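A common beginner's mistake is to predict each chain separately and then try to dock the pieces by hand. The better habit, illustrated here, is to supply every component at once so that their relative placement is modeled jointly.
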Amino acid sequence: MSVLAYIESPGGHFKKSGFEVATYASKVAAALNTNAVAVVIGKVENAGSLGQYGISKVIQVNGDSLVNFDSQVFTKVLSSIYQEVGANTLIMSHTANGKSMAGRLAIRLNAGCISGVNALPNTSGGFTVSKSVYSGKATATYGINTPDRVITVMGNSIQPQSTGSAVDVENKSLDLGGGKVKVVEVKSEEGGVPLPEAELVVSAGRGMKGPENWGIIEDLASALGAATACSRPVADADWRPHHEHVGQTGVAIRPNLYIAVGISGAIQHLAGVNNSKVIVVINKDPEAPFFKAADYGVVGDLFEVVPKLTAAIKKYKNQ
Amino acid sequence: MNILVCISKTPDTTAKISFKSDDTEYNSDGVTFIMNPYDEWYALVRALEITEQNGGSVTVINVGPASNDIVIRKALAIGASDAVRVDIDAPDSYVVASNIAAHAKSKTYDLIFLGKETIDYNGSEVGAMVAELLDLPYASYVTKLDINGNQATVTRELEGGEEVSQIDGSFVLSAAKGLAEQRIPNMKGIMMAKSKPLNVVAPIQADARVHVAKYTVPPAKAGVKMIDPDNMDELVRLLHEEAKVI
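With all components supplied together, the output reads:
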């Protein structure tokens, strides 16, 4: 029974989350003494490059109805490929589209579904895998009761490992009928690093006093190659776009480094970021609750500290 | 236009999270429970707005024990017409979805709404499962919804962008921030909620497909290392040499 990985290819290209899924799937396959097959939908440049991440075969599916995403149509395609390769485990990214299909596929394949896993499974005597629950305040280890499994992998949970070489791509045409969703427009944000995928994040809160002061945050983020984020009050006041809001009711992220500037650290904010590997807090109030969740803290006026930190980063990068 | 809104009960956003029975069960002692914010603020309110403009009614459904009636009454106070509670303490998302789908099949709803995820299990699984069980399209992470006759235009939030699409006929929608503004129930709504129908129905047969073997609470941070605000070179050195993140 193979492991099947669905690798998303927005705009015809793989993203880091896709390489994470390929790596995750090949490691699960190795643990189960089987091979990992990847499936891609639509035209993709260099689909065979997934072999570098341990995938033994890539199936590329094309069809007139597969140009835009429709969870109902893509689910039919993936479940058909799953049956064809004789898989018992399907692994996808924990992205908006991945999550839109995981539950559907679980129904279609009579599978147990665990979404947003944050580590490789334990396969000795069963199949258990952990995920973050209660908005990051705890971890749950789940067991799957069914022979078939559908899993989505949270971003930044595994480091993509490129050790192998490219493999052959099997092209396949499938038309299982059109869906009822007609995509009329896809908008991508200009430049920058998408927040859910970012390894480094610079985030700021009400301490910034107003949207006009965000230049120093953008400078720091650009010096680091980081994504920018913000706290809820800042998004609610429209100082920053809503997709930058991290926290319990915004985006939950787990970057390697989270730098919080002028954010007090309410429990709802911490829920979205407390899976970050390292947290730096810059705040003028030494009593700010965020310091309790931080690894490194700086007490000082952010308008002085942040430009100094940016200068220090630039100096380090130029060495 | 009749809309079914699925609501869930979750611990309050500020609740302290702890476990009991050898870390296999959530410890609800002293915890305040609320309606899952994505269900309440966005899914329910947008459903009410749509029926206020186009006519029809909003039914809420919850899969859970009698102790969930408190959040169901709140949904009625905010404006839902009637409610259904499927009487089972569901062990996983599949059992929840199966019961919602079974109810939906027995009625005729034009649309089915729910929040993009619950703030306890953060699974985002139930909406997709209900859509598949009913063989309906699924518009997930929706931040904007316009209805024009039989056609809906939805904006979905994606990683680093958004997608606008049109859907004809019935579908399942998961609601994200931006879809609507929170409504606070007023006294009249609270009084009226007491007499609105809350129908308790028996669950269908469905077996759990996953189970939680153990919960763990992350270890507390070792303690914050304070850095002199005039020595950012030291912070950069620590991030590079000690934390190894840059």
